[in-house]
Amino acid sequence: MSDVYKQKDIAPTIAKILDLPYNVPTGESIEIKEKIIGKKVILAIIDCFDWNIYEKYGRSILKEAVNGFFFEYRVSSNASKTSPAIATILTGLDPDEHSISSTADVESSDIVNLPRFAEMNGVKTTVVMEAKGANTFSGDIKEIHPVEDEEDIIEFDYKILENVRKSIDRFSFIVFHIRTIDRFLHRGKGSGIVKNELEKNIKKIVNIAQSSDFLLVITGDHKSHGDTFEGDKILPFLIINFSENY
Hints:
This protein is of the alpha/beta class. The protein is built from 10 helices and 8 strands. It has helices spanning 10-17, 51-65, 82-91, 95-98, 103-108, 114-120, 131-135, 153-167, 180-186, 191-210; strands at residues 5-6, 40-46, 70-76, 125-130, 145-147, 173-178, 214-220, 234-241. An 8-stranded mixed sheet has the order 1-3-8-7-2-6-4-5, sandwiched between helices. Helix 9 runs antiparallel to helix 10 (191-210). The model has no long low-confidence stretch (mean pLDDT 90).
């Protein structure tokens, strides 16, 4: 596994899976199997889920949770904060191309991100995020699921995942963002606690996607913060097809 792709390659890859002619990205689609084109997609963005954490814990958790094969890619992130990183994931543009560094920038941007483009082109789409971020998608996307921020980050992520669970029967493209790892690392929590919460969340995500006919895509947004792990700007980009071997 020597190839390292770019974070801006994620949006065109998902657009290809959704069979959408999304021409905003300067990134390029990663080569994928023809048989997954046209499938419904759940995109899980896990805050601070970098390659270091993935290799240390994530891969073994995923292998235990997934009944079948999954494919992993490495992508390089040029952003160290959430807003510009998610903007790159959802537009296929580098931070210096989309110029989004905050939620306010999203609200004033004329760039049509992939969730908006999907909804505008007949792919029923929803976004499940912290309220300020989710509300930037209102208008073009008919139904969003904003979750109010709160001190209890475990409860916050629980609400995010419950909204995802309730959405699987009504949408073909679901994008969500969970934040436990990021919040725990900012608070100086140890690696054992981070691993336990990562395991709980990955198993919940897999359970939700596996119960439906969705392709599950998992990625991180930026390198991990704090002193618990050595931050890595290389991130996992994972594709899991539950209906058959990828």
